[in-house]
């Protein structure tokens, strides 16, 4: 998959004069009003922060990015503005315009580590870009463009002839680690690349998807042929030192992101769905042995292989997975992302 992307003026971007169209947000909301109300009543504080209730009630750039994305897909400008206000004021503290990755209510100051997380930055910038088009808000597009340029400059580098996404501006490069560069496959949020490429002056966005798919294929390993959460690309891809060699809560998002981006690579997706599925649910697993670790039965996890089967073979999504009831922040978020894709692409499932 290749795109030829050229930077646009903000006015042209807002008018939709672009070589690649953003995910459409016009028309009926992609996130049902009742589902969004249930989600925000559980995870959105009045301050605008999204609470990770399985992780000490912290907030992080990933969660704020997800919240912004869900709010724009729900068509809720007031909620988007609320989440953006917290994100801008409490996390965009770095000199480069990117977000500090973690906000902890139990510490003072609440941000103790200024490092960023590239997936959170991608989600925030992408959501701002979609909101700019949805509500004709050029200020969002300006901020998204600035973030996209900075991500390309500090979070994207070349390794063995391929462009890779570093998980943060510091700590993961070949200069920072003996086994570097280290990447996280779930940080390739493919749907964001063409949208940010419309706004950015950097040509890297046009190559990230193609190179990311190549890295995903090379990173499927072990008996289950799954990617580790953290991968060393120092030589051949292998589990990074200092991290558990597991297909875990990070990597299980990879097939979801591929389907949402319309990248229906049958070999890759079918392999992921088979490797992550166990009796009764989805499993994290040891990369080296293939042994399952945690069996995950939450609908937000089980819907991922179901979404793959839907996208590849038009297999109906089980009815219980189409009903949204909030559980914990992470699986609830994944379920709404999957359901919003189904709302946008009703032709994929009978």
What oligomeric state is this? single chain
Binned, the helix content reads: 40-55%
How would a textbook summarize the main sheet?
A: 4 strands, antiparallel
Query: Which outline best applies?
Result: globular
Number of strands: 11
Order of helices and strands: HHEHHEHHEEEHHEEEHHEEEHHH
Give unreliable regions as ranges.
Answer: 1-7, 18-25
Number of helices: 13
Quote the distance from N terminus to C terminus: 27 Å
The chain-level structural class is alpha+beta
Strand content: 5-15%
Average of pLDDT: 94
User: How large, in whole angstroms, is the Cα Rg?
Assistant: 19 Å
What's the short story on this structure?
This protein has helices spanning 10-15, 33-43, 61-73, 77-91, 118-135, 138-154, 192-199, 205-219, 254-260, 266-276, 299-313, 319-322, 329-344; strands spanning 59-60, 102-103, 156-159, 162-165, 182-183, 231-232, 238-239, 246-247, 277-278, 281-286, 292-296. It is of the alpha+beta class.
